[in-house]
Design goal:
With about 210 residues, this protein is α+β, with helices and mostly antiparallel strands. It is about 55% helix and about 20% strand. It has a domain of about 150 residues: Beta Polymerase, domain 2 (2-Layer Sandwich). The longest helix is centred in the N-terminal third of the chain and has 31 residues. The relative contact order is 0.12. The chain binds ligand 0O2.
Length: about 210
């Protein structure tokens, strides 16, 4: 594929990422404005880099003409939550949505990766309305806590620096850091009720101040 082919190929994925970001950000805003608890802290999204796609295709032996079905995370959305419990709540809401179809789920929370990575992945089929008609694409929604995201972001950048050849001491420290993040999530879950109540109170007060 030349540059123009790639551009055309990636267009529906770019559209899907933009739409999905808006949808989940809006969901957060809507719940907040109804003074309900929002299981979403913030949302990011990206279209996979061509180099990363080619690498993955090679590793999984996906032929170039089967990238659409063979690589499920060309469009990727990441949703960060405060608490582990929010991940289940949000996953349930995603399963019930009419605008996307859940194909399958990967639970890297109860089955963490050997690296220490924890996150909940949902592979969806998402219809994009293009100028040529409707196109169903695959997308990956990653749902994780703020602590899981902190760990994954650091680990990703270290892997980038060391080109996947992490020195043993760094690997060991990352493994301990993953354990610390896990404990942090557990501790936060234990005082979840307290935290949520105080946040709702804080929002009530700031709404009052904003209205004055
Ligand atoms: P990019 O383009 O840099 O965002 P695999 O075959 O292991 O690659 P798997 O196990 O099926 O893939 O996982 P999946 O659901 O395809 O997700 C891959 C993505 O999950 C990665 O994207 C990361 O965002 C995240 N991820 C998976 N494992 C790890 C890990 O050990 N550490 C970190 N930091 N992130 C991980 P890419 O490949 O980085 O793509």
């Amino acid at each position: 594929m030349d540059g123009r082919d790639w551009k055309r190929f990636l267009l529906p994925y770019e559209q899907a990422v933009e739409e999905l970001k808006v949808k989940f950000k809006t969901l957060r805003g809507e719940l907040k404005s109804r003074e309900e608890y929002a299981p979403i802290e913030f949302v990011t999204g990206r279209v996979k880099k061509i180099s990363s796609m080619l690498e993955k295709a090679k590793r999984l032996s996906v032929p170039m003409d089967q990238l659409e079905s063979g690589i499920e995370d060309i469009a990727g959305i990441r949703i960060m939550c405060q608490f582990v419990e929010d991940i289940n709540t949000l996953a349930e809401q995603i399963r019930e949505r009419q605008d996307m179809t859940v194909l399958y789920e990967k639970d890297y929370i109860n089955n963490k990766k050997p690296s220490g990575y924890r996150s909940y992945h949902i592979i969806i089929e998402y219809p994009v309305q293009t100028g040529l008609g409707m196109k169903r694409i695959l997308a990956e929604i990653q749902i994780r806590t703020l602590a899981m995201n902190f760990w994954a972001t650091i680990e990703h950048s270290l892997n980038y620096k060391y080109k996947e050849q992490l020195p043993d001491d760094v690997r060991a420290r990352l493994s301990r850091a993953a354990e610390a993040a896990f404990i942090l999530d557990q501790e936060m879950s234990n005082i979840r009720g307290e935290i949520v109540a105080s946040q709702l109170m804080f929002e009530d007060n700031s709404n009052l101040v904003n209205r004055v």
